[in-house]
């Protein structure tokens, strides 16, 4: 299967990085530090020049026309679809069961994926065999590798073990769901990209890749609408997609509006398929409340992005191949073949894994999450998003209580000036936002 995008061969570049550094160190140790420093300086300048030349390469005009960044242009390129699935929220008991299911599904999926994020399928399988547990996992990981190590959020890896769960520990896949709530409450459903930027500067102490690039740019005085355009090669990675849930929940049953909210959020840090990833997932999560088949939510999400963009074509490919996927191994093999050379935290490859995970769930949230985590790549992101969609379709009543009772209604955070959120209170606040959105229609 030929990949739709063909990347340069980075094999030699990667292979040379270690001997380059180590020979430079060795020559310094042997008294040739002046010559080593000069050569490294020359290479550094050559690399800077190459980066500039890469930035200046003209994009393919035809593909650019299929992948606009502005909302009106995006909407002009969508496939026909039903863009409002609910005229009003359902009865309160049904609605809250679904909303709490979506929130808990996201938390559970995230925490199932965190301990093995970035590991290969083979490494996950070997670790499961080592600790004597089944693979794919059937519950939270009872042991994690390097439990004493600290992550960038100030937590030790050991805190994510099943036996250590006393709350839902911090992770960016959960923090941005908390942040979306604050943005919607403080600025209202008509918030702007500038409002998102202000909220980031107010609440985010740390970020990664595209989000960090946008934060850094804003701190230098770059306007919010331009913050994604400078020193940001990560603008099509998965960072925006993981921020989508809150907008899907606040606009439940209204996928077009959910996608619009996601667009306003995503454009702060992402471009093109990075934006579409958040729009797609927000619309899919919105639609998930109103459908019985999670793949119907996928189709609703696809209808909100340009039908000729790379992400739409990749998602259509995933739907076409769902019948050939019998388990996590099939899914990962197909994705590796199609996306050879793509970074492991890119939007497109990971969102295709989500589609396969939703198919493999077969109406069982834990099975869907287990299979999704076992596919690898950015496993906490993929499982969290799959959990949000499955939780909205199935409801909290379909989730085994032992998967969430261990949280004791507490969701920790690394956002500034806050230690934790009540999970029940968070659901009530999102419900209030959804009622506000629907009352304006």
TrEMBL record:
Gene3D superfamilies: ADP-ribosylation/Crystallin J1
Species lineage: Bacteria, Bacillati, Bacillota, Clostridia, Eubacteriales
Keywords, sorted A to Z: Magnesium, Metal-binding
Molecular functions per Gene Ontology: metal ion binding
Obligatory cofactor(s): Mg(2+)
This protein's record includes keyword Glycoprotein: no
UniProt cofactor note: Binds 2 magnesium ions per subunit.
Pfam family, one: ADP_ribosyl_GH
Name under which the protein is recorded: ADP-ribosylglycohydrolase family protein
UniProt key word Electron transport: no
Residues involved in Mg(2+) binding: 378, 380
């Amino acid at each position: 299967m030929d990949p739709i995008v063909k990347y340069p061969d980075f094999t030699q570049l990667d292979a040379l990085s270690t001997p380059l550094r180590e020979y430079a160190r060795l020559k310094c140790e042997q008294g040739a530090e002046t010559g080593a420093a000069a050569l490294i300086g020359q290479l550094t300048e050559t690399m800077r020049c190459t980066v500039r030349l890469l930035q200046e390469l003209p994009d393919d005009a035809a593909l650019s026309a299929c992948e606009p960044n502005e909302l009106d242009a995006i909407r002009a390129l969508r496939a026909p679809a039903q863009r409002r699935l609910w005229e009003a929220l359902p009865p309160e008991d049904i609605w809250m069961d679904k909303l709490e299911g979506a929130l808990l599904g996201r938390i559970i999926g995230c925490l199932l994926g965190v301990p093995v994020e970035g590991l290969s399928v083979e490494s996950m399988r070997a670790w499961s065999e080592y600790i004597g547990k089944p693979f794919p996992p059937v519950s939270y990981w009872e042991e994690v590798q390097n439990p004493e190590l600290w992550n960038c959020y100030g937590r030790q890896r050991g805190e994510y073990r099943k036996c250590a769960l006393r709350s839902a520990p911090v992770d960016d896949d959960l923090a941005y769901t908390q942040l979306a709530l604050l943005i919607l409450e403080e600025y209202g459903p008509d918030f702007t990209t500038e409002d998102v930027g202000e909220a980031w500067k107010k609440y985010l102490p740390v970020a990664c890749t595209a989000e960090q690039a946008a934060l850094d740019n804003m701190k230098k005085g770059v306007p919010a609408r331009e913050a994604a355009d400078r020193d940001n090669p990560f603008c099509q990675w998965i960072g925006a997609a993981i921020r989508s849930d809150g907008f899907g929940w606040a606009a439940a049953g209204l996928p077009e509006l959910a996608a619009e909210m996601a667009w306003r959020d995503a454009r702060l840090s992402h471009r093109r398929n990075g934006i579409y990833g958040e729009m797609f997932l927000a619309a899919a999560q919105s639609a998930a409340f109103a459908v019985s088949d999670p793949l119907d939510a996928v189709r609703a999400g696809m209808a909100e992005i340009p039908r000729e963009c790379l992400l739409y074509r990749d998602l259509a490919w995933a739907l076409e191949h769902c019948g050939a996927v019998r388990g996590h191994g099939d899914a990962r093999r197909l994705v590796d073949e199609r996306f050879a050379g793509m970074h492991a935290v890119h939007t497109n490859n990971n969102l295709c894994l989500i589609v396969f995970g939703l198919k493999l769930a077969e109406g069982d949230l834990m099975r869907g999450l287990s299979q999704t985590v076992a596919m690898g790549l950015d496993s906490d992101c993929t499982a969290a998003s799959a959990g949000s969609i499955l939780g909205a379709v199935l409801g909290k009543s379909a989730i085994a209580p032992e998967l969430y009772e261990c949280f004791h209604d507490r969701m920790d955070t690394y956002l500034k000036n806050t230690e934790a959120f009540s999970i029940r209170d968070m659901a009530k606040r999102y419900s209030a936002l959804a009622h506000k959105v629907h009352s304006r229609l």
